[in-house]
Amino acid sequence: MHTARTRRAALVAACVASLGLSSAGHAACDTETFIQGADVDQLEEFFKDQNKQVVTFIGYSGAGYEDPSHMLGIASDLLDQFNPATTIINIGATPEGIGAVYALAKQKGFVTTGIVSTQAKAYGVELSTCLDYAFFVQDDTWGGFLADGHTLSPTSAAMVGVSQVLIGIGGGEVGRDELLAARHLGKSVRFFPADMNHQTALQKARKNGRPAPTDFGGAAAAAFRQP
């Protein structure tokens, strides 16, 4: 068992190296990205016209991963279960955290898409360079449930609405809300626990004057934890 685990770790490390990932987890691709604004209806029409199933990966973004190689290993195994000829890989358009999966997907021959709130544009957040299509959704929030606790924001409604399969690898409150909403709608939802980057979480807590966290599993893990 130990030998198999060591061999798999070596394969993942080689994969990370081949993607040219930096310490921040970013990868450079030579992908020409089509960028436009769109609402939920326009996005559903666009993806319907592609005549492919949409698999959406959800996870941490700026919070990062404590073990990015582990996350990429999970993602690589999952991507191998889908056919690039009939599947689109969708994420949240940015390169951080779960966005590193874009490079893996392009390497494996998938068309890649990203759906993100216009908050990203307002704050000058960079988009992944491994995107074929990026869509900005007009939204006063970054996503998740609105104040009523059950209505998704426009961005999250689009993410869930266009997807047939949603895969969570860790994730915070926005990811949790999207996965729970998708499960409620009867969509295929799979979840894999993964810690956020511990140092980043501790620094954020200090900056905001909050107690140091002791659980780094994220809000999504708490919602999907088996009793």
TrEMBL record:
Keywords: Signal. The keyword Signal applies. It comes from the Bacteria. The lineage of its organism: Bacteria, Pseudomonadati, Pseudomonadota, Betaproteobacteria, Rhodocyclales. Residues 206-227 are annotated as: Disordered. Residues 1-27 form the signal peptide. This is Uncharacterized protein. Residues 216-227 have a biased composition (Low complexity).
